[in-house]
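Problem 12. The chain below contains 564 residues. Write out its predicted structure in token notation.
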Amino acid sequence: MLKRISASVRSLVIAGIFFIIGCQKSNDHVLATIDGKEAITVNDFNIFLEKKFGQNASKLAFSEKREYLDLIINDRLKLAYGIEKGFDKDTSWNEEKDIKNILYRNAYEKYIFGNFVTEDYVKAYMDYFGVTIRVQNIVIRFKDRKGSLAKLTIEQAKRKADSIYILINKNNFEELAEKNSDYYLNPYSKKVNIAHEKMQIGQIPVLYEREVIKMRPNSVSKPIEIQGAYVICRVIAFDDSLKKPIDIAQAKELIKSRLQGDDYATLIRFQNAFLDSLYKSAGVKIVDENIQILLDVLLDTAKAQSGAFGLTEEYLERPIAILGTQSVSFRDFIRNYSPDQIPSPNYQIIQRLVKDYCKSFLLADLSVQDGFMESEAFRAELTESKKKRVIKRVSDELAFIISSPSDSEIYAYYSRNRLKYQTEGVIGWSEIYSPTLELINAAERVIQSGVDLAKIPEIINAKNNDNSVKFIPNNSSKYTEKNELVHVALRMGKNDVSKIVSRKSGGFSIIKIESKIEPELLNYETVKNIMKNDYRNNEIKKSEKELLRNLKKRWKVVIYENNL
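Solution.
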């Protein structure tokens, strides 16, 4: 890592670890004290909840707030215990690597992830999560991998999509879809293009979703690039009957996981283009002779087993890449790669790894150029990183003293916890949803006369001249899911129709059970290794509980629930 980074922060780590107790303003109420000292204030706690839950923090029940308060107190106790044991002075802690990770994470969030996931998109995602969108798509595929059936290059597909978009008016979308769309390659559905397709926010590719979520009924999107295709979307309608509340942390995590899934190839292409531009503008020069030295060491098995590639102190400071006025040394490189991570080394592999390291270094350096290292946010993250390492070390020490269970202990654990080791029960149902009690009552009367559920909306909506009543087919949930419909469905048999169910999110439903797959116990030998880990983790939790109980005896914890 660069000297300018390490020198400016070394003292922060030493001082930061002892910043255990949050600074309290004189007018701030106290939620908890540890050993007679102010540990957590209302302001501290509210900031924690807002970071985790965003605007939904105020909706948390008292019991949920108390649970999070207990978690914070437990971490503070383990931190204090870890410092007492000297874990904060652990010389194996790679300070430089943690600093680089913080800087890289900040730049990635801003320059790469931030290009895809804006604050507006996250807010819209929270507002629309679970909402079903009815759409029509024109799909123009391009060849993005070997074996693809598409014939166009990405540039040709973009030109074709742009030319189609120019022609679209209020009346010709279906005609253009039928003539031009690669419906046999449609990444969303096997239906013909002119059919209306239902998509649920939270289950469709991010690059498509982030555009569609901003649209209104009867509007048409510009060509949207997704993995292997350009898509022009026409939104028909929104249905919020399945809308679910989520917090800001969950929203960001879900979007990230999907960016690394459905949209991974597209995201990586954009990411690589950004990193390549950084690399090119920095004028990076690889020091070939030093890469050869590194390769020779790796090929010498005896030296590589040393854990530091067998390099002397003189070699460790040699540059393997020059980045303008800065450089990446052997030491920087081997802090991020160990010999066992490069099992079959050759010159090209080492050169690629060095280039990749340089790119990640340059991205992290954007944070330095932005002045992030002088910010309160950086200092807070660095302090938090050290705290987490101390807390993790406490947990690791507890885990170390727990021995592996014997076969008799595992079988006894299996006998006590058989219901944990079974297949998931799954219920499938169709649903009639209405926002009002009056209309669902009317629907129930029609159902009792023997009419199929799928025809109910047509009958009820025709009488009331609106589209309030919806038929929602092909729902499924695991037995373990906690919502009012699953609670009702568990007491029903196949083909049974429920009474009216009041929905917590608003409105009313009637469901018909289409299928039920009962859970089955798993064979002991099948789950033996899983149970072995579960048993050991359970013992670690008990050991941690005992430690916390003893710490609370030593350092009295007082909680002021009236301030919660």
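Discussion. Residues 1-27, 184-194 have pLDDT under 50 and may be disordered. Students who got a different answer should revisit the alignment rule from Section 12.3.
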